Amino acid sequence: MGAASPLLHFLFVSFPGQGHINPFLRLAKRVAAKGPLVTFSTTLDFGRRIRAAARNNFTADSDSDLIPVGLGFLRFDFFDDGAKPDDPERDVLPILMNRLETNGPSALAELIHLQSAAGRPVSCLVNNPFIPWALDVAADLSIPSAVLWVQSCAVFSTYYHFHHNLAAFPTEDNPDIIVHLPGIPPMTSDDLPTFLLPSNPFKSLTTAILAQFHNIYKARWVFANSFDELEHNAFEALSGIFPIIPVGPLLDLGEFSQEKIKADIWKTADHCLAWLKEQKSKSVVYVSLGSIVMLSADEMAELAFGLKNSGRQFLWVVREDAREFLPEGYEEDMKAEGKGMLVEWSPQEQVLASEAVGCFVTHCGWNSTLEVIAAGVPVVAYPQWGDQVPDAKFLCEVYGVGVRLPAAATRDDVKRCVAVAMDGEEADRMRNRAEKWREVARAAVAIGGSSDKNIEKFVGDVGKWVAVGGAT
């Protein structure tokens, strides 16, 4: 493969959302590490925000410069979807989706033509499925394509069965039906992605999610940010219906010299790592509810006082747009009492790798779920909506590494669940199981691991396609 890899050029095209871009960029780096050239693209507006937050994280002077990654190279090249940086509604989902569908296909086609004009024709296009029109562009240009699903295989199967009416789901008339899907434990309405419930208020988001399945058959490869050992039954059950290939966990585990190439739109508070080094082993509660979840003022107060009353040191990620909901003077009081630290954004993988962290209070987004599994840290699961709900079920009931915090949680709930995850025999059992999962997760992406082999085969398959003259 080494001799053919310089001929290969993979174009990764991502939906402009933090939870989509992070695993997508990690897959791009893993593909590049096998030898090809990889161009990473998203909207020009989101690219500007990445560049503004990155500072020293990029090692290239400009977006188009080649960055060595393993045996190959990575570059950035963004497309203009017409977003105005000063438009306060540019990220509102219905507006964003309409703008992408209207302007994205022509902008992407132009970007692909520019690659050919520059002497680097695209061998394969990879997208994440919130921009399904990218598959149409690739098909029109006779370029083979792949899709990365950025949630679990179980959630993919759930949406797939719902979209194709392959199983019975809750309805207005029968809201309490138990959903039975192959390879997945039975799910009640309290276990399902909330966007599939009759009570779901976010109909536009449901439409956007299900639109991913309208043309996914055009992709030659569909990947999942998961690993076989974690969801073996779900992958196996899907293999005879719609095969999906595990390539995760897509994390920065320090195996490349360029693990600092990131795509965060918030500057991380790296100083918290020095603070963690000063704390005792397994003594800190780490709290982060991701980039989108927004708690009410009452929920924030209960979480805040629950953490205080737990008697533990804590590191809490509170975004700027949520700080107004903190109890008055809370951050200053916690700092003065030496109770903990509040930051606006953290280098989460490094935080979870810290010996000081004893448990993770998480919303159970899939990225965070994989990060905590790969870190071997017990979980206090606090899902809010969407796929976070089944993720929490699997963390607590299937993987056995967490305790469920009820919503909306009281301060006593928070104190109790933190104690379960940090103290006593059950905490020891959860930690032992978490550490075993950590080893399995890391083995999957190590050289020769189950996911690494799938990535290598993908690169090899594209190389064969190019070798027989398939490239345009």
TrEMBL record:
InterPro entries in the record: UDP_glucos_trans
Superkingdom of origin organism: Eukaryota
Pfam families reported in the protein's UniProt record: UDPGT
UniProt xrefs under CDD domains: GT1_Gtf-like
Record key words, sorted: Glycosyltransferase, Transferase
Any one GO molecular function term: quercetin 3-O-glucosyltransferase activity
Family classification: Belongs to the UDP-glycosyltransferase family.
Protein name as annotated: Glycosyltransferase
Organism of origin: Platanthera zijinensis
